[in-house]
Design a protein that fits this description.
Helices cover 0% and strands 55% of the residues. By secondary structure, the chain is an all-beta fold. It has one domain. The strands form four sheets. The protein has a two-stranded antiparallel ribbon. The chain starts with a strand and ends in a 5-residue tail after the last strand.
Length: 47
């Protein structure tokens, strides 16, 4: 979606809690590990 020449990325994330544990997704960014909630987004295709 484009708003006033800016691109807005739409994303959805979920939180799963079971037995007092939270599901997290681990991502690698260079030499750093980053933890996020599982989910994803929609890429803007220009149309």
């Amino acid at each position: 979606m484009k708003i006033e020449n800016k691109i807005l990325r739409v994303g959805v994330y979920g939180i799963l809690i079971r037995d007092n544990k939270i599901l997290m997704a681990k991502e690698q960014s260079g030499s750093r590990s980053i933890y996020n909630f599982p989910g994803g987004g929609i890429e803007y295709d220009g149309d």
